[in-house]
């Protein structure tokens, strides 16, 4: 029996020592990867999570010794490149995470390897570009540019050029850019009296995220409509940049720090004023809740923001437990196939989206709790597209089996990926894709905000 299995101690994560020069030492990194890979080889519980572990185990099984010592160290990078830092292996599968004496944190080991690779300059221009979400969003948010980009993304010839030049797979359906940013048209209401709950502040600040701001602002408007309907005063964060998750996944930790320095001063001011901060994309909420506190341990401002950060549905269910969430729903939602994304699961708040949607009368929610395989920029890349679709295949099948009226995921990119996977798999499904915030706005009978 492992220490974790035989103990009541909760799994814990250590701070990432990314400022320590030894963090980037090649020999130390390779030694730690060999140690952890050997533990994983002897366990293999994570074989069905993604392609990272099958890649590792195939390398071991095909080696001359049949053990990790038979794998060429250069081939370790094949494992690293498959990992998209979903954190599920640490959070749900591995029995050897701290406080176990073997101290296995596979995602943070992969992060270290990616940081070493980035510092060496061994990343493509494409990867730097795709993770520069603010720059791409600001350019594409210009109306004529947005129209041109969206048209090009739907054009087979243009997509072929994009694939040959940047390696963005021409088969991947890309999200459109909106001609008007969410922040430019958001109509938040601060006129309501503040009604604090036992578990939640009674006023909200919205960190809209790059995706909501530039790609699907309607989701942000749905959040505002729900808050206004529930008479919860709301404001927008006065300063907002990318949360840093794309840079983290690339291993650009200095880039993460630059974004942290832009975001935290405005957010900590709101937190100290008693606002709950809502981020409507799970990866962004996770970045502030868990990743930044581990990267900047001891930073009091980062810790204060982490305490104030909520997933929207986490916040709604806490309000409901305080008797302050309105349940005057006007429209049933019928059958909803709901996918809980990895970065929602690892926040350890439970299935709050499902619980909220099930408050709506005559609504049946089928939950699929498995990685859909897209993960940020990973699934758009030419070399990983087929793998992303393979990982998502069980999700596509399970989402369609319920013959739902709606397919939904807290992660809007995963929602698009699932919709494409169902259709490309040959399943004819009349279900509409809708974000959970959109579904809740519809259930309240609130009009869509353009």
UniProtKB/TrEMBL annotation:
Record-linked InterPro entries: Cys_rich_dom
Signal sequence annotation: none
Span of domain Cysteine-rich: 204-289, 336-412
Presence of keyword 4Fe-4S: yes
Record key words, sorted: 4Fe-4S, Iron, Iron-sulfur, Metal-binding, Repeat
Alphabetized PANTHER family for the sequence: ANAEROBIC GLYCEROL-3-PHOSPHATE DEHYDROGENASE SUBUNIT C, GLYCOLATE OXIDASE IRON-SULFUR SUBUNIT
Name of the featured protein: (Fe-S)-binding protein
